[in-house]
Each structure stands twice: as structure tokens, then as C-alpha cells.
Amino acid sequence: MPDMKLFAGNATPELAQRIANRLYTSLGDAAVGRFSDGEVSVQINENVRGGDIFIIQSTCAPTNDNLMELVVMVDALRRASAGRITAVIPYFGYARQDRRVRSARVPITAKVVADFLSSVGVDRVLTVDLHAEQIQGFFDVPVDNVFGSPILLEDMMQIGLENPIVVSPDIGGVVRARAIAKLLNDTDMAIIDKRRPRANVSQVMHIIGDVAGRDCVLVDDMIDTGGTLCKAAEALKERGAKRVFAYATHPIFSGNAVENLRKSVLDQVIVCDTIPLSEEIRSLPNVRTLTLSGMLAEAIRRISNEESISAMFEH
């Protein structure tokens, strides 16, 4: 069996180290930096010939820099005769640009990125909670899309929820919310119907379901500016919700997210470590982080040993 080796770019160094620790190994020796003109510089400083290589790198902000780091690392490893290269992308950037809405003259950038990664020599992709699962079909190589929900669900079970109800922040998240509600002792579910007048601005319209006197658990795949969740929390509290918890896998926290969360009525915001948090976000008392390192380490181990990934999520 080829030697398994882990490498990491500069996007998620802490998560990469946690994964390496879980696998009782160390990160590979690679110098990933910049030339004086800003171009990405990569040098692999150890033998990888024939190795089973995993590159851990979210394509979060700065998205283009992190994507180029990943691509250039793949090329360096491919030219060094790596046996198989798996791109471990905990957060897959550009995933929201996955379609042309009403035939608008816009790119399908998620497909462009998939083609980019395939063409440079990625043999397999491991990612977490793709914004749209059909993005897997954009790739010409196998994609394992694993889920953060077991980690989030474990936390929900431990925080002492009282008479909980799972809430989808929009119509598009109903399938996710229903799955969480079923696993959370088959609890009730509510839906928030909202309209979005322009990008990153949301307006809560009304709530489908009775939330009065209950602990509300908002679930989503990502939090961007936080505007949607903060307004959702306000609407839930106005309708008598006791406490409001927001759970999401990917903490993008762009724009005025810090201010939104600081002013929000959310009791807690719980996210995963697919994207590093800024110091401002870390300082907020109502924000907590859960690690996906154990789950990703197990997925990497299974891929390396040619074992089933789907078996990790069979209940």
C-alpha cells in the first residue's frame, strides 16, 4: 500500500494540524509562500514518489489566493511523481455560483473551478457540505461530499435544549432541517419564508410553524454576513421563542458579519472549523467552534484504505 502523506496550504493550518494529529502523523514538508511580485511559490521538500497524497486546503477568503495555492501544490506533487492526489477542501469556494438563474449572462464558476482542479491532476476530492450537492457532477473525478451534521447534532444533544424545534431559515434549507429534526428525536420543524431583494440582504416575511415557548435551532450550511440568521432570530423571538441557537458548517462571516452578530438576539452561534475565524469573531461571547478534524481524519483514512465513506453516515 502506498505511503499516505498529508500536505497543507495556508488556508486552514490549524485544521490540517488537528487532522494530522488524529491520524498520528505529521504534515508533509512543503514551502508554500509568495514571490516578491505576489505569485504563489511552492516547493515540496520530501520524496512523494508513488505516495497517496492528501492536500488539505479550504478555498475560503482570500479565495483566489487559496485556490491558486491548492492548484500549484497539486501540480508540484504531480510533477514529483505522486501516486494519487486527493484534494481535501473542507470549504469549497465558488459553490454558490452553480447555475445561471433565468439564463442570466453569468458564469457557472463552480464548474470552472471543478474543471481547473481536474485538469491540473487531482484524482479525487473530499469536501464538506457542498452548497449544492449536484456540484459533484461538475467534476470528472470522484467526489466524496461528507456532512457536518453528525458533529452539529452531537452538540445539540449536549446543550440542554428544552422543547426544541428545528427551523429552516429559508425554503431551500427544508431538506437539511428535516434531516436534523428527524435525528434530533424526531422533533418538530418550522420554516421561515423570506424574500431577498438583493445580494446579502434578506427580509424575513413570516414563520410557518409554532415556535412560542420553545428553543429554536436554526440550521444552515453556511453563515455569510449573518443578516439572514439575525433577522430570523428576531422574528422567532417576536413570536415567542424562548432561545434561538444557530448551527452552520461553514463560518464565512464576510462583510458586516461581526456587527450583525454583536447586535443579534441569537443566544449562541455554533460553527465548524472549515474556515479560520478572525480575532473579532473569536472575541464574540455567543460564537462557538466545533472541529471536524476527527470526521475528516476518518474519511481520509477510509479513502487511503479503499473503505466506504458512506458507511460513516449510516444510522
Q: Could you explain how this protein is built, in words?
A:
Belongs to the ribose-phosphate pyrophosphokinase family. Class I subfamily. GO terms for molecular function: ATP binding; kinase activity; magnesium ion binding; ribose phosphate diphosphokinase activity. Mg(2+) binds at residues 131, 170. The active site is at residue 194. The protein is of the alpha/beta class and 315 residues long. The protein has two domains: 4-146 and 293-312, Rossmann fold; 149-284, Rossmann fold (3-Layer(aba) Sandwich). Helix content is 30%, strand content 27%. The protein is built from nine helices and 14 strands. The protein has helices at 13-22, 63-79, 109-120, 149-158, 174-183, 227-238, 257-263, 279-282, 293-304; strands at 4-8, 30-34, 40-44, 52-56, 84-89, 124-128, 143-146, 164-168, 188-198, 201-208, 215-223, 243-251, 268-272, 287-290. A hairpin with a 5-residue loop joins strand 2 (30-34) and strand 3. Helix 1 crosses helix 9. It is globular and about 60 Å long.
Beta-strand content estimate: 25-35%
Largest sheet: 7 strands, mixed
Q: Classify the secondary structure makeup into a structural class.
A: alpha/beta
How large is the radius of gyration? 20 Å
Give the tally of structural domains.
2
H/E order of the elements? EHEEEHEHEEHEHEEEHEHEHEH
Q: Kindly report the spatial arrangement of strands forming the biggest sheet.
A: 10-9-8-11-12-13-14
CATH class of the largest domain: Alpha Beta
Unreliable spans are: none
Number of strands: 14
- Give the overall shape: globular
Counting H and I runs of at least 4 residues, what is the number of helices?
A: 9
At CATH level 2, the architecture of the largest domain is: 3-Layer(aba) Sandwich
Mean pLDDT: 95
The CATH topology of the largest domain is Rossmann fold
